[in-house]
Backbone:
């Protein structure tokens, strides 16, 4: 069977997507905890032969308010001028402050799960953070609902809503304060988090928002006093944050400001403590105070200082109850070896002390010992269970990696076969398929029988049978492809196809970047790798161009005659102008590199974007935005006709007007009316730009007229993406868009001059644009940390939350560098295929086939190679301390980029 090389590339990429999906299925379990619910029968009625009284396990607070202030950093509470009332409560002993440690990822939904269930949520919950389904885990909210108690939670996902959502919550709170038909209220205030996302923790809006939260606390405290006087109740107010906020304003990473939040308790006779508690400790503590059973999924410990006014017998009972639960959970991991563990020996001693205390209830020494013993055991067990609850499906991981490695080998072989080879002959054999299927089936039976590993793939389900057949078929096809590719390798030497230093640099740089992924520091500072590689490529291409110019000048000078003096002077002037432009080009990139600090080690340092974001520098920000829009208009004009340029200019003015309307920039004190009409016109302009290029093609298609070879539709798409990106970007980052256009043009011009063949030309352009996209991805301030995602971009022009549009805007803004650089690559290659050929039929098609084939192979390999190596590293380092803070977030980024690459491959396939 004969197949085209381009189809093989698409097949290999598709198989790689499946293999990575299988790896992620094993590496990121969807849930660490079952959906089993606790029941009142779980309360211990005895301890060994000693009878216990569960009646003492009852509500300690008749009415409770849980106030979650999203992104509340610990240092915010210390701002006495902004949270004056709360600090007064802390000073006079009416409130206590504790410190909570948050587990990454520090995003809202996983943290809400941790607070309410006491479990460690799945890392993949970060993907489901927006528009998540109903939570199935057991929580103290569910347990309270079983006793006909209810909670109240009103929030808003609209990131530009700083005040309205919080005001609605406060209004609803006041209405409920007049009723006595509830036992618990949950208030989730999101305004502080929204301000952080848009303007950062040092925004001038932060003090006002903290004062607003302080006023809410004061109002709740006043209501608590009335409840106590009127109903003789004992109310409780608990204030905390779901996560913190990094200095740049985002969250999702593992820095100290993101992973440490305050816990403030108002109303109970709490005891001060400097101990660091875990966020998951809040669920069992809250459940115990409210007199409901602890959620089944909870692996947290009790926050003992919050039980200061609980009778000693009941405190010991609660401590025993939670510790026994954790012992039972540890049984799942240690099985018959449980009683040999040190913590179990300590647990037996704690029970002996517990029994002694029940006999001598006035002995405070025994009380302290038993509480300390239970607390030490439960904390040890919590940390032990956190470590063990990260369950990997090793069979899925191994199969995913094995399939990825096989695919990578074929992708590399496909890359180094002669570029003139357009077809591959494969001969699948039934015998090989049957042999592989039999081996896979026997391996499955062996693994299942001897329980070497636990995996859902070993279960006899319809899906697993299909998966077994599919894996056998893919392995057979891979083997046949290998047999078909090997004979093609002997036809030519691949190194001879890619001569020259630029080609060797791309090869070395790709290999170096792949190997660097084995180190966590290189992952955190990956931008440094691309800064070095891409700028080295720029420099090498520039020096090569100058060398060619000098050789031309020397050749002209050697044969100089009176008639060649003008030509010689022209060559020298052209070289000098190029050198000046090259110096300006590199100087521009030096400035762009300092627009946004990124990475981990130097992310906290001030940058140009921080300076422009200050209120006192709003005039300079306005100038930078205006210059960026003008620069972008000039760049877009190179691709467009007159009418498109007019519409683009109007769109740029509308972008500036929108930023003026939102108060981001200023223009001579002008304050335009706040209306969305400017954005409506903006969307209409983008549609007009699209139809200007699309309607002529549609007209010719309807009339069946031959359409001339043109890249105008693609040029219009580039223009639309660039203008939309200008709307979504932070104002100072608009300059990056035009700089990307200029950098792409600079690369294409240099490569066209130095490439010795069409194959080398296509290869250099493709890899160089992949690097260029990554370069501007980091210039924009992005990194491998989830905290650098600019959520504000997802809500530009929206009045409410819309999952589809928010997701689309976030994708376009975050991966803007890769998207635009790819579109520019396609555009330049399309124009090159037509302009380089004299014969507009056969030569054009031959050139398109070569370019398409090269692009498909390169786009596939630059994703397949590094990611395969990376998942191997991650699998080997799955117990590394940074596995969830450094390695895992990059997998999520890479998987998302892999999806974008799939779209790019589809565009190349249908365009050329």
Residues:
């Amino acid at each position: 069977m004969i197949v085209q090389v381009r189809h093989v590339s698409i097949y290999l990429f598709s198989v790689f997507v499946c293999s990575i999906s299988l790896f992620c299925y094993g590496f990121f379990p969807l849930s660490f905890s079952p959906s089993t619910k606790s029941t009142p029968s779980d309360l211990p009625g005895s301890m060994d032969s000693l009878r216990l009284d569960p009646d003492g396990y009852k509500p300690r607070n008749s009415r409770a308010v849980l106030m979650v202030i999203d992104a509340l950093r610990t240092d915010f509470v210390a701002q006495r001028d902004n949270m004056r009332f709360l600090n007064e409560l802390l000073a006079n002993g009416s409130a206590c402050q504790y410190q909570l440690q948050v587990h990454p990822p520090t995003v809202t939904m996983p943290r809400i799960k941790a607070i309410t269930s006491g479990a460690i949520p799945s890392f993949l919950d970060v993907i489901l953070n927006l528009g998540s389904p109903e939570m199935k885990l057991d929580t103290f909210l569910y347990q309270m609902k079983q006793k006909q108690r209810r909670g109240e939670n009103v929030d808003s996902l609209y990131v530009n809503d700083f005040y309205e959502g919080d005001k609605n919550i406060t209004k609803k709170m006041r209405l409920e304060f007049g009723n006595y038909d509830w036992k618990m209220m949950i208030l989730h205030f999101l305004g502080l988090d929204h301000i952080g996302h848009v303007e950062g923790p040092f925004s001038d809006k932060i003090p006002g928002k903290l004062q607003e939260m302080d006023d809410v606390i004061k109002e709740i405290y006043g209501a608590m006093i009335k409840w106590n006087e009127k109903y003789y109740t004992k109310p409780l107010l608990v204030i905390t944050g779901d996560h913190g906020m990094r200095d740049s304003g985002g969250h999702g990473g593992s820095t100290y400001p993101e992973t440490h939040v305050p816990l403030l308790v108002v109303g109970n006779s709490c005891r001060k403590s400097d101990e660091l508690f875990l966020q998951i400790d809040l669920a069992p503590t809250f459940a115990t105070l409210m007199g409901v059973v602890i959620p089944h999924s909870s692996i947290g410990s009790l926050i003992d200082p919050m039980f200061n006014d609980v009778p000693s017998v009941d405190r010991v009972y609660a401590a025993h109850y939670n510790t026994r639960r954790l012992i039972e959970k540890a049984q799942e991991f240690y099985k018959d070896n449980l009683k040999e563990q040190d913590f179990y020996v300590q647990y037996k001693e704690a029970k002996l002390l517990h029994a002694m205390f029940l006999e001598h209830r006035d002995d405070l020494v025994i009380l302290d010992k038993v509480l300390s013993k239970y607390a030490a055991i439960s904390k040890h067990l919590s940390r032990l269970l956190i470590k063990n609850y990260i369950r990997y499906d090793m069979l899925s991981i191994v199969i995913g990696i094995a399939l990825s490695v096989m695919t990578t080998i074929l992708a590399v072989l496909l890359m180094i076969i002669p570029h003139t080879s357009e077809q591959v002959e494969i001969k699948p054999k039934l015998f090989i398929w049957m042999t592989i299927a039999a081996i896979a089936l026997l391996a499955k039976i062996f693994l299942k029988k001897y329980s070497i590993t636990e995996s859902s793939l070993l279960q006899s389900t319809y899906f697993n049978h299909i998966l077994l057949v599919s894996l056998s078929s893919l392995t057979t096809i891979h083997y046949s492809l290998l047999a078909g590719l090997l004979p093609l390798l002997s036809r030519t030497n691949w190194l001879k196809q890619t001569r020259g230093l630029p080609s060797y640099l791309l090869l070395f740089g790709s290999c170096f970047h792949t190997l660097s992924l084995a180190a966590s520091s290189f992952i955190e500072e990956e931008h440094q790798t691309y800064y070095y590689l891409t700028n080295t490529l720029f420099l090498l291409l520039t020096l090569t161009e100058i060398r060619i110019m000098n050789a031309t000048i020397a050749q002209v000078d050697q044969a100089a005659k009176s008639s060649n003096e003008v030509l010689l002077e022209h060559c020298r002037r052209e070289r000098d102008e190029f050198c000046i432009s090259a110096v300006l080009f590199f100087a521009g990139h030096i400035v762009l590199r300092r627009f946004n600090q990124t990475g981990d080690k130097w992310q906290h340092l001030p940058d140009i974007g921080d300076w422009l974001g200050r209120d006192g520098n709003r005039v300079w920000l306005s100038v930078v935005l205006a210059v960026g829009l003008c620069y972008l208009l000039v760049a877009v004009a190179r691709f467009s006709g007159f009418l498109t340029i007019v519409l683009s200019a109007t769109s740029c003015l509308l972008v500036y007007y929108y930023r003026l309307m939102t108060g981001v920039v200023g223009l001579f004190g002008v304050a335009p009316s706040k209306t969305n009409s400017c954005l409506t016109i903006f969307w209409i302009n983008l549609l007009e730009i699209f139809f200007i290029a699309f309607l002529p093609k549609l007209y010719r298609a309807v009339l069946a007229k031959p359409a001339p070879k043109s890249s105008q539709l693609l040029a219009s798409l580039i223009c639309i993406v660039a203008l939309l990106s200008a709307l979504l970007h932070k104002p100072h980052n608009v300059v990056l868009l035009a700089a990307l256009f200029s950098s792409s043009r600079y690369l294409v011009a240099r490569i066209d001059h130095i490439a010795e063949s069409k194959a080398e030309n296509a290869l250099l352009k493709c890899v160089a644009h992949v690097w260029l996209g990554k370069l501007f991805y980091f210039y924009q301030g992005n990194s491998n940390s989830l905290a650098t995602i600019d959520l504000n971009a997802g809500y530009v022009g929206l009045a409410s939350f819309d999952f589809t549009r928010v997701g689309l805007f976030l994708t376009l803004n975050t991966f803007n560098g890769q998207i635009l650089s790819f579109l520019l690559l396609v555009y330049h290659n399309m124009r090159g295929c037509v302009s380089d050929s004299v014969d507009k039929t056969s030569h054009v098609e031959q050139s398109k086939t070569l370019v398409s084939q090269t692009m498909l192979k390169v786009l596939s390999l630059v994703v397949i190679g590094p990611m395969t190596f990376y998942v191997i590293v991650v699998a080997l380092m799955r117990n590394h301390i940074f596995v969830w803070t450094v390695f895992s977030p990059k997998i999520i980024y890479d998987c998302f980029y892999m999806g974008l690459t799939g779209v790019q491959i589809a565009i190349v396939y249908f365009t050329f």
Q: What stands out?
A: The CA atoms of residues 46 and 171 lie 47 Å apart. The two ends are 24 Å apart (CA to CA). The first strand starts at residue 2 and ends at 4.
